Amino acid sequence: MHKLRLTPNVSVGPFVFGTEQQEMWEIMKNEFGSVRSSIVERNKPSYESEYYANPDIHLDYKDNKLISVNFIDDIRQRYCEIYLEDQKIWPRTERKFLAIFGRDSFIEIYGTYYHTRFSLAVGWDDNPPSLLIGQEGYCTEAVEHFRFYNIVSKMEKGLPRDVCRMTINRAYHVSEDGRSDNYQHGVIKREATSLTFDSDNRLIKAWQSYPDGDVIDILD
Questions:
Q1: Residue among 76, 64, 59, 74 nearest 132 (CA)
Q2: Angle of CA points 18, 149, 62, to nearest 5°
Q3: What global pTM score does this model have?
Q4: Scanning 115, 159, 166, 219, which has its CA 20 to 30 A from the CA of 25?
């Protein structure tokens, strides 16, 4: 059993946000005797995820620097206990976990609870549940991305351009051809949301694009 102390937005045990990826390999080996799984996900140009089996941990990097760690609750072994000051916060039941911080401290999105002040997120819908802890702003960004997506997804094709802009109420850049409004958002995980209009300035398309080149249509 490893007991790890959480310093919100900074570190949890040996996982210090901003640590270089190669240094984390040595930390995992020295602290846990663990090497990463052969399964590594890369989202070029800047994101990478690593998976470890013992303990069951996922590490996310941006530009080769640690930005989050996700602890999977292995109900049989429970390799890691996490403490905030002298209070054990993980593993815990849903009721106890939310009571420690106060349920009102969390923002719930589809069964995942985000604590933006402490940059942590947890959900019990998955089996097993897991606790994600990120660097400063990590969960704030996740919540803002969802809220932005939710605003755009409720728009209807044919909506006037000025109404779209007023509804979103954020800074935007107009595309070179003048047909699209582009909204950049996110620092930790950069995304762009674009709205395209016809010659009468009526909404015809909305989509999100990501640094790895993926594009997701928002409107049907």
A1: 59
A2: 15
A3: 0.84
A4: 115
Amino acid, single-letter form, for residue 167: T
Rounded-to-integer distance, Cα 132 and Cα 69, Å: 6
At residue 133, the pLDDT reads 97
- Amino acid identity, residue 116? T
- Rounded Cα gap, residues 167 and 147, in angstroms: 12
Q: H/E element holding 57?
A: strand 56-62
DSSP 122-169: EESSSSS-EEEEESTTHHHHHHHHHHHHHHHHT--TT-BHHHHHHHH-
Report pLDDT digits (tens) over 172-219.
Answer: 999 999 999 999 888 787 788 999 999 999 999 999 887 666 788 998
H helix and E strand count, the chain: 4, 18
Q: Exposed, middle or buried: residue 28 (CB in 10 Å: 0-12, 13-18, 19+)? A: buried
Count of CB atoms situated within 10 Å of the CB of 20: 13
Cα(46)–Cα(115) distance, integer angstroms:
25
> 3-state DSSP call for residue 16?
strand
